[in-house]
Specification:
The protein contains six helices and seven strands. The chain is globular and about 40 Å long. A hairpin with a 4-residue loop joins strand 3 and strand 4. The chain is α+β, with helices and mostly antiparallel strands.
């Protein structure tokens, strides 16, 4: 992470980034990607919570966080940029935003079959709270939670 940190830039999403973000989305979620309308909904409802990260000039990933829901809505990092700490970097930016907006805890949903994502969230302090049957229609989800004090006091 040290080598790339200087070239990582977090920015708020703007409409000009839509096509690049859609490319990231389709690569990361090929079965059921969000469409342009969904991204524009989150942008219009809470632009401060929709962040992209650039590595050099390329959008490497994005995150959508809702201060109303106190939830990470979606996060994605292009495959070629994974395992560099970019996802954790984005997640920490979004969590700082949500906690600064008064959240006492942040939640997210993840497919029970997405072991890689579950491990990522656990490494970042989230814990599985419960299983939600049929959440994704075709698959169950875990509800995961991160209390504010655990985020600011570090990991176990």
């Amino acid at each position: 992470m040290k080598e790339i940190k200087e070239t990582l830039r977090v920015e708020r999403f703007v409409k000009d980034y839509l096509n690049e973000v859609l490319e990231v989305e389709k690569e990361c979620f090929p079965k059921k990607p969000y469409d342009a309308k969904t991204f524009l909904h989150w942008y219009s409802s809470e632009p401060e919570g929709f962040l992209i990260v650039r590595l050099g000039e390329e959008i490497a990933g994005y995150i959508i966080a809702s201060s109303v829901e106190k939830e990470i809505i979606s996060i994605a990092v292009k495959k070629k940029f994974r395992n560099l700490g970019i996802g954790s970097f984005l997640l920490k930016e979004a969590l700082n935003y949500l906690f600064s907006k008064g959240a006492e805890e942040v939640v997210l949903h993840v497919r029970v079959g997405n072991k890689r994502a579950i491990e990522f969230y656990e490494r970042n302090g989230f814990e599985i709270v419960k299983k939600i049957e049929g959440y994704y229609g075709d698959e169950d989800a875990y509800l995961m939670k991160l209390p504010k004090e655990k985020f600011f006091n570090g990991k176990d």
